[in-house]
Amino acid sequence: MEKERHVLVVFPHPDDEAFGVSGTIASHINMGTPVTYACLTLGQMGRNMGNPPFANRETLPAIRKKELKDAARAMGINDLRMLGFRDKTVEFEDENMLSNLMSSLITELNPSLVITFYPGYSVHPDHEATGAAVVRAVEKIPEADRPKLHCVAFSRNCVEELGNPDIVHDISAVADIKLDAIRAHRSQTELMLEEMADKLKEKDPKTMAWINNERFWTYKFS
Asked: Residue 45 region, left (φ>0) first, then alpha (ψ -120 to 50), else beta?
């Protein structure tokens, strides 16, 4: 993993970062690289309410806000931006406004690396809209001055259409931090982690591969 000047991570929901890139984030922070996480929503429409349930539709936004802060703390992120959009509505926001917001973050922070979702290959409409806004913002920058753009993709056809990941980070050295970040989002992850407990304890190969490897595609600008 290269030492970066600054890493900007942009996702729409609390826990998007934990599952997909928390090991990469922790690794960059351990190398002394500043990381900014811009999270568009508080995941207000999340389906899970804890196990056993401890949240409801009214209390979930505040709970997920705290969970996001706890996850950021677990990873060592000091610059967490909560952008105030509503869950499951990002796809309906004005595209120019979203692109300009991403451009303002890039101008302010001057990152050498931006991490987001790969548009067309990230399943959820909020994921798609967020990734597309970041792509449009980066594309406006002259090619010689653009930050690197590493994208997370997990649709069923992503490997078939994009090829194998361009980058695979072995984050096993910080796997405990990744698990702590996942646990921090407890309203959404407790049931999943309970179901995974035996596999983690037994170091099931598939489970450990999922934990220890984080995959990215470099965005292919036309």
From this structure: alpha
